[in-house]
Amino acid sequence: MSKIPLAGEGMRTEDEAYRNKARFWKNALISLIALCITAGIIALIEYFALGGGDMFNLPLRLAGDAIGLSGVLGFSAFVLGFVSSRGAFDLVSYSVKLVFLNVFRPKYRQENFPKTFYEYKVLKDHEKRRAVFPLLWLSLIFLAIGIILISIYMNQIQ
What we know:
mainly alpha, elongated
């Protein structure tokens, strides 16, 4: 039997599972790259803010601060994304779109843009909006590693 679906046949569950798994790993890779870039930028900012001096165990301090802070920022981004996926910012997004349409496209009412917020909300509620859970897990890992590095640094100072 062929794996090609017949006309009118929906997506198979194994195809859906494969797509979910691929989406998870793609989101995990993007989250990891974003957290590493954020940690690198934080480490550079802290290094130059401290004057690049000859402090005791400066690399350990920089790594702990950068990794821990990027974990906190990643967790905060996840929380905002999670709340947004539940529809908390729909009114703000509708208002901003409406303002820009009024300014740049005066005849926006003739387009497919919803006429009321209720219509917009109904359309948004039918969309599948997902939070990026790999960002949560990677942020918590970064936060834990940052706490461990900072505790090692504080024990070496004493």
